[in-house]
């Protein structure tokens, strides 16, 4: 699909040269990355038995972001002229991986990372599969290690649910 | 099977055999019974591993306390419950909230285990009563507004110099933002109390930083890394320009009419012609020097002021329908011609 | 070029015209409170970096439904018992410690850029700007470390005893360090007596630490590093003397401290006020006997006067500390008052610590009452803010509340004291977890005993369970109050609270609760009665369940079993069912079986209850239960058994009582076939009660009969 667009552009450029004048506009619309493939990416295949559980987040494909679901990262780097774009994206990914690894098998939702000033608030839904004491240990450990690593105060704001079934939105 | 039995003659061996087959094929219950009897169990090839996929029975914890929102008094102070920004938590918010897109006819997902509600930055910590009380609390650090500065004009009169800077709030471990260093100074030129020469020189010095339509001089500095340095720099620029404008250098005397920044009617041929025409009309024929021409008082000529303004206007602001019309009227007045009749 | 510009009056005029849109920084402000001429901005109100935040924080009150903010706000994670509060807070801190350990062990990972090439030197990299010290890895010192004096300075500044000792050794001991650093190190060692203090970083450990009262015993390390350093200092300055004397006095090496003090005075060195304060605090170790000690105290004060050292408020509390440690008695109380009066004359008002020691001297458990507290509270309420100046300050509130509850028994004072503690940020004076719980124990006790019922309930609702979880003794007090107030529904709730707080296995408390429930049962609404019945059922089931658990797990300390009276109370309440099918009867049955199997301690205090229950059971059509009750009565040898069995039988057989009595008088064997098994059991009970022994058959078989019968009935 991407290649076809490129071809189209090349073709029209070659033929008329008119498009060359408005090439900045065209260039900004030309993506070669996967997200444009609306057909496949971020979508789940329907199973034969229709027993694949989906959360609300999974049930809505990426193009519904800002329409039916909102972002998982909230920061000013995503805005126009935001600073530290790459660093923020990398740190957020680090937080996500750290959380899912440290709270192994307990995280039932996406990890939501919200930043305000230098305060990072990490939210998520956690299964009540370990004792509260262990959860408190993990809470303290995660907060301290992440804040030492990122050098920002990190706060975990979790919600607990009985089982993964509580966050299931539908089955496909 | 019954057919099978019927077709065979009932001899003893066949019957026994038959019975055995019969047994094997009869019911599932029997076969399982058999299986139990057998010492070696037939191992089933379980490709999908169905047995392992059966989840252990999840014991729901019964000792989890009810939500604390149930215990909240209806007249409680919400600010105490939610004092600061925090991710939404269903057990602490006594509101029947729902969020999520669903097909028509269904109810959106409730507040429990709803990640969408946790994503949205909420303002539960900034309810109007809380804002009010917080404003009251920090009032002790506020000073009174000077009472004479009660209008924009007063402010402009007493504080003609404006320093414009921007502070940036952003989510990052660093509080620095390079854009915060930029400092803009704005001042109305008329408040600087310059004389004609100084004003002209000042405008020439600042160049396009002067906007003649608003009479504002805008000086922006972003060359230094810190704001305070830039502030010092714009102040220095203004000061330097100001004092430089008052200086008169030797070479400035070489200024010719071509160097004039505007059309001065007094110095130009138009006045000369007017004065000559006036003198001729009076019947006096004198030859005047340049300086005499310049200092000639045109007020003794009738309608000369109007003419002067019209010409200056035309020359300074360019030829347009307006200026041409004005010029025509001035000339008619000067020569005592009748007004142009509007057809 | 800038310097070449001549700055005449225009420049000053310009700068004074300057107006900044975004801030008032850099403005020349007139030195009056308001705008002086109505044009220039008024002077800026000076404020610290956190003043605004504190002003905002002051607008937030307490939320009785929420746990302390150190706990996570989630139903699963909010602790409800003292054990859990402790466990949760400490495990969170354990996690934090684990992370800090990783940070310190792998410090190289935390301060360098990840994208530095592998073989190159790593550049220090700080994500945060401005740099945050708290997130920096802490240095670790071992025998191989290369250290400088800066390291020692760092360790001393951060009060790291072990680290600084290590660094000190690495630097070459007393020879390798200059005198100034040695003095600093000496001061540190003397302050902590060479023991690593609890780190300031781990708040929860400090909060839950059990070091409640410092022992008044000689713990000074004789011949330790501190003394070695002191010996090595030459010449010994007055600061060195001050440090070592204070250290010795603080850890009760009294005689040597006083010796050194006199040595210093002989040498003509100036000692500080705090040296004398510490000497005064341990003056009692020098002499024996109250009179001698008072003499010693006075002579030390006189010496202080000679040296021309003026006392401060800590001197007062040091004197009172000494006096309070010497026991009670009129003489000491007199001296204490004298001291306070003397200091008042000097313009030194007693602080919280001084008040604490005064309360210790005067308000003894069995002594006469002294109402010092009300004047103290009057005084403290007038103060703008309470500032903690010494560790003993945190003892004031718990002691004062103890005095309110035990000594004065004054609800009014208790409430004022509590309000004082809640004012502004006085709550920091509560001390630690242990002191906090003692404070509230006293407060709740005095409230339960003295406050009007509505008030008590209100206070209990705000405090329990998020601020304070009552101990068993306080719970008993609360139950008593609820009983007197006749609050049936609250008593029913109290059971669930007992379970949540972890007191449900304490038989005495549960018995007390059952008693209270039973006493208030009559006169409640039907709805509340039903609640109380279900609570009673729950108690019984919980008992059975925990017994089963004990059997399987073989706990070391088996829980106590409920007494017979308690079971009777359950029976009493649950039998108040109008319907045969009511689940209450099942509970009654279970309880009676427990009684019958002699699983309960003692005998019921109110046997008449069981007789009544038997009567009721029969009337409603539960003969087996009636039989069980009567049999139990008979087996225990209660007088009521005879009359009860007669009454029950008469109801059961629908005959007048006299006839029944005559029937029972007959030969036992003749009845056997004729009667219903339950009736038979009752008849047997009658005979047991009458003769003291079962006739023909053994009681066990009869009870088992009735058991099987009852199961048939259901």
Automatic annotation (TrEMBL), chain A:
<keyword id="KW-0809">Transit peptide</keyword>
<protein>
    <submittedName>
        <fullName>28S ribosomal protein S24, mitochondrial</fullName>
    </submittedName>
</protein>
<dbReference type="Pfam" id="PF14955">
    <property type="entry name" value="MRP-S24"/>
</dbReference>
<dbReference type="GO" id="GO:0005739">
    <property type="term" value="C:mitochondrion"/>
</dbReference>
<keyword id="KW-0689">Ribosomal protein</keyword>
<dbReference type="InterPro" id="IPR026146">
    <property type="entry name" value="Ribosomal_uS3m"/>
</dbReference>
<dbReference type="GO" id="GO:0005840">
    <property type="term" value="C:ribosome"/>
</dbReference>
<dbReference type="GO" id="GO:1990904">
    <property type="term" value="C:ribonucleoprotein complex"/>
</dbReference>
<keyword id="KW-0687">Ribonucleoprotein</keyword>
<comment type="similarity">
    <text>Belongs to the universal ribosomal protein uS3 family.</text>
</comment>
<keyword id="KW-0496">Mitochondrion</keyword>
<dbReference type="GO" id="GO:0006412">
    <property type="term" value="P:translation"/>
</dbReference>
UniProtKB/TrEMBL annotation, chain B:
<protein>
    <submittedName>
        <fullName>28S ribosomal protein S35, mitochondrial</fullName>
    </submittedName>
</protein>
<dbReference type="GO" id="GO:0032543">
    <property type="term" value="P:mitochondrial translation"/>
</dbReference>
<dbReference type="InterPro" id="IPR039848">
    <property type="entry name" value="Ribosomal_mS35_mt"/>
</dbReference>
<dbReference type="GO" id="GO:0003735">
    <property type="term" value="F:structural constituent of ribosome"/>
</dbReference>
<dbReference type="GO" id="GO:0005763">
    <property type="term" value="C:mitochondrial small ribosomal subunit"/>
</dbReference>
<dbReference type="Pfam" id="PF10213">
    <property type="entry name" value="MRP-S28"/>
</dbReference>
<keyword id="KW-0687">Ribonucleoprotein</keyword>
<feature type="domain" description="Small ribosomal subunit protein mS35 mitochondrial conserved">
    <location>
        <begin position="176"/>
        <end position="248"/>
    </location>
</feature>
<keyword id="KW-0689">Ribosomal protein</keyword>
<dbReference type="InterPro" id="IPR019349">
    <property type="entry name" value="Ribosomal_mS35_mit"/>
</dbReference>
From TrEMBL, chain C:
<protein>
    <submittedName>
        <fullName>Protein PTCD3 homolog, mitochondrial-like</fullName>
    </submittedName>
</protein>
<dbReference type="GO" id="GO:0043024">
    <property type="term" value="F:ribosomal small subunit binding"/>
</dbReference>
<keyword id="KW-0496">Mitochondrion</keyword>
<feature type="region of interest" description="Disordered">
    <location>
        <begin position="691"/>
        <end position="714"/>
    </location>
</feature>
<dbReference type="Pfam" id="PF22330">
    <property type="entry name" value="Rib_mS39_PPR"/>
</dbReference>
<dbReference type="InterPro" id="IPR037387">
    <property type="entry name" value="PTCD3"/>
</dbReference>
<keyword id="KW-0677">Repeat</keyword>
<dbReference type="InterPro" id="IPR055063">
    <property type="entry name" value="Rib_mS39_PPR"/>
</dbReference>
<dbReference type="GO" id="GO:0019843">
    <property type="term" value="F:rRNA binding"/>
</dbReference>
<dbReference type="GO" id="GO:0005739">
    <property type="term" value="C:mitochondrion"/>
</dbReference>
<dbReference type="GO" id="GO:0032543">
    <property type="term" value="P:mitochondrial translation"/>
</dbReference>
<dbReference type="InterPro" id="IPR011990">
    <property type="entry name" value="TPR-like_helical_dom_sf"/>
</dbReference>
<keyword id="KW-0809">Transit peptide</keyword>
């Amino acid at each position: 699909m991407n290649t076809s667009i490129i071809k189209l552009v090349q073709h029209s450029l070659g033929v008329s040269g008119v498009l060359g004048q408005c090439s900045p506009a065209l260039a900004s619309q030309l993506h070669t990355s996967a997200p444009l493939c609306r057909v496949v990416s971020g979508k789940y295949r329907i199973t034969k038995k229709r027993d694949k559980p989906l959360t609300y987040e999974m049930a809505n494909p990426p193009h519904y972001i800002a329409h039916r679901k909102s972002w998982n990262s909230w920061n000013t780097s995503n805005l126009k002229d935001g600073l530290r774009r790459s660093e923020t994206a990398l740190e957020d990914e680090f937080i996500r991986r750290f959380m899912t690894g440290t709270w192994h098998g307990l995280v039932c939702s996406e990890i939501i990372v919200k930043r305000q000033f230098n305060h990072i608030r990490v939210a998520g839904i956690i299964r009540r599969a370990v004792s509260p004491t262990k959860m408190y240990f993990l809470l303290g450990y995660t907060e301290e290690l992440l804040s030492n690593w990122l050098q920002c105060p990190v706060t975990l704001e979790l919600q607990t649910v009985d089982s993964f079934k509580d966050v299931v939105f539908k089955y496909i | 099977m019954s057919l099978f039995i019927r077709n065979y003659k009932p001899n003893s061996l066949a019957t026994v055999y038959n019975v055995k087959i019969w047994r094997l094929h009869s019911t599932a219950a029997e076969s399982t019974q058999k299986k139990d009897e057998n010492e070696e169990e037939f191992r089933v090839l379980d490709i999908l591993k169905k047995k392992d996929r059966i989840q252990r029975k999840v014991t729901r914890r019964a000792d989890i306390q009810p939500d604390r929102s149930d215990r909240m008094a209806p007249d409680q102070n919400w600010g105490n419950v939610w004092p600061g920004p925090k991710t939404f938590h269903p057990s602490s918010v006594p509101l029947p909230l729902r969020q999520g897109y669903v097909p028509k006819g269904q109810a959106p997902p409730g507040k429990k285990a709803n990640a969408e509600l946790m994503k949205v930055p909420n303002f539960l910590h900034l309810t109007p009563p809380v804002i009010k009380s917080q404003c009251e609390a920090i009032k002790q650090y506020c000073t009174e507004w000077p009472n004479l500065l009660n209008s924009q004009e007063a402010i402009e009169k007493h504080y003609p110099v404006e320093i414009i800077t921007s502070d940036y709030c952003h989510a990052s471990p660093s509080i620095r933002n390079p854009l915060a260093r930029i400092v803009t100074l704005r001042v109305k030129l008329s408040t600087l109390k310059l004389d004609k020469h100084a004003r002209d020189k000042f405008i020439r010095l600042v160049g396009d930083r002067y906007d003649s339509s608003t009479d504002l001089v805008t000086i922006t500095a972003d060359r230094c890394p810190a704001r305070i340095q830039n502030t010092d720099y714009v102040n220095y620029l203004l000061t330097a320009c100001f004092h430089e404008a008052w200086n008169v250098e030797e070479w400035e005397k070489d200024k010719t009419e071509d160097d004039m920044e505007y059309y001065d009617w007094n110095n130009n041929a138009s006045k000369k012609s007017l004065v000559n025409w006036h003198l001729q009309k009076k019947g006096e024929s004198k030859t005047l020097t340049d300086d005499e021409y310049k200092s000639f008082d045109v007020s003794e000529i009738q309608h000369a002021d109007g003419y002067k303004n019209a010409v200056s206007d035309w020359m300074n602001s360019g030829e347009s329908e307006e200026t041409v019309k004005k010029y025509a009227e001035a000339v008619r007045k000067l020569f005592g011609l009748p007004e142009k009749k509007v057809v | 070029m800038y310097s070449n510009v001549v700055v005449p009056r225009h420049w000053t005029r310009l700068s004074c015209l300057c107006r900044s849109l975004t801030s008032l920084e850099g403005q020349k402000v007139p030195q009056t409170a308001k705008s002086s001429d109505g044009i220039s901005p008024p002077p800026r109100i000076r404020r610290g970096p956190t003043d605004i935040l504190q002003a905002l924080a002051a607008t937030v009150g307490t939320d009785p439904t929420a746990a302390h903010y150190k706990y996570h706000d989630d139903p699963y994670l909010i602790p409800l018992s003292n054990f859990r509060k402790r466990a949760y807070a400490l495990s969170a801190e354990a996690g934090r410690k684990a992370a800090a350990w990783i940070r310190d062990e792998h410090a190289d990972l935390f301060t360098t850029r990840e994208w530095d090439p592998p073989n190159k030197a790593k550049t220090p990299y700080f994500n945060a700007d401005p740099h945050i010290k708290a997130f920096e890895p802490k240095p670790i010192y071992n025998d191989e470390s290369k250290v400088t004096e800066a390291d020692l300075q760092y360790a001393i500044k951060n009060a790291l005893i072990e680290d600084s000792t290590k660094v000190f050794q690495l630097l070459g001991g007393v020879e390798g360090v200059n005198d100034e650093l040695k003095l600093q190190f000496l001061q540190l060692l003397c302050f902590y007596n060479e023991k690593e203090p609890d780190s300031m970083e781990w708040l929860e450990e400090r909060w839950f630490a059990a070091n409640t009262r410092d022992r008044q015993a000689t713990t000074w390390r004789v011949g330790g590093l501190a003394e070695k350093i002191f010996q090595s200092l030459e010449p010994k300055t007055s600061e060195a003397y001050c440090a070592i004397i204070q250290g010795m006095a603080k850890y009760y090496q009294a005689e040597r401290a006083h010796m050194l003090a006199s040595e210093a005075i002989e040498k003509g060195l100036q000692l500080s006020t705090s040296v004398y304060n510490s000497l005064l605090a341990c003056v009692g170790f020098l002499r024996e006997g109250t009179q001698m000690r008072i003499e010693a105290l006075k002579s030390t004060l006189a010496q202080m006067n000679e040296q021309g050292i003026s006392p401060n408020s800590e001197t007062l509390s040091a004197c009172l500390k000494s006096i309070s440690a010497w026991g009670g008695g009129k003489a000491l109380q007199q001296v204490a008052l004298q001291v306070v009066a003397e200091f008042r004359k000097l313009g030194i008002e007693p602080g919280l610590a001084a008040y604490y020691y005064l309360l210790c001297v005067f308000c003894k458990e069995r002594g006469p009452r002294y109402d010092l507290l009300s004047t103290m509270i009057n005084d403290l309420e007038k103060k703008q803010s309470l500032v903690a100046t010494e560790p003993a300050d945190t003892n004031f509130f718990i002691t004062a509340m103890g005095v309110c509850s035990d000594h004065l028994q004054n609800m009014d004072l208790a409430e004022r004291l509590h309000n004082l503690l809640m004012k502004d940020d006085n709550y920091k004076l509560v001390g630690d977890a242990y002191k906090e719980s003692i404070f509230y124990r006293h407060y709740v006790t005095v409230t339960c005993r003295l406050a009007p019922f509505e008030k008590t309930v209100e206070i209990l609702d705000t405090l329990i369970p998020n601020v304070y979880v009552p101990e068993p003794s306080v719970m008993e007090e609360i139950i008593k109050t609820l009983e007197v107030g006749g609050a049936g529904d609250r008593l029913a709730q109290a059971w669930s609270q007992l379970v949540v707080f972890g007191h449900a296995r304490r038989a005495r408390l549960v018995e007390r609760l059952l008693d209270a429930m039973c006493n208030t049962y009559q006169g409640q609404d039907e709805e509340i009665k039903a609640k109380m019945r279900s609570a009673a059922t729950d108690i019984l089931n919980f008992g059975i369940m925990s017994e089963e658990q004990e059997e399987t797990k073989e706990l070391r300390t088996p829980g106590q079993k409920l007494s017979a009276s308690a079971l009777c109370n359950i029976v009493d309440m649950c039998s108040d069912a109008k319907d045969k099918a009511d689940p209450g009867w099942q509970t009654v049955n279970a309880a009676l079986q427990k009684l019958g199997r002699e699983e309960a301690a003692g005998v019921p205090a109110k046997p008449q209850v069981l007789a009544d229950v038997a009567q009721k059971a029969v009337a409603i059509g539960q003969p087996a239960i009636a039989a069980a009750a009567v049999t139990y009565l008979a087996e225990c040898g209660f007088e009521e058994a005879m009359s009860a069995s007669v009454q029950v039988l008469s109801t059961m057989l629908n005959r007048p009582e006299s006839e029944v009595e005559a029937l029972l008088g007959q030969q036992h064997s003749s009845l056997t076939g004729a009667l219903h098994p339950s009736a038979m059991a009752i008849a047997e009970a009658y005979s047991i009660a009458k003769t003291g022994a079962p006739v023909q058959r053994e009681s066990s078989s009869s009870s088992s009969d009735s058991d099987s019968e009852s199961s048939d009935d259901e």
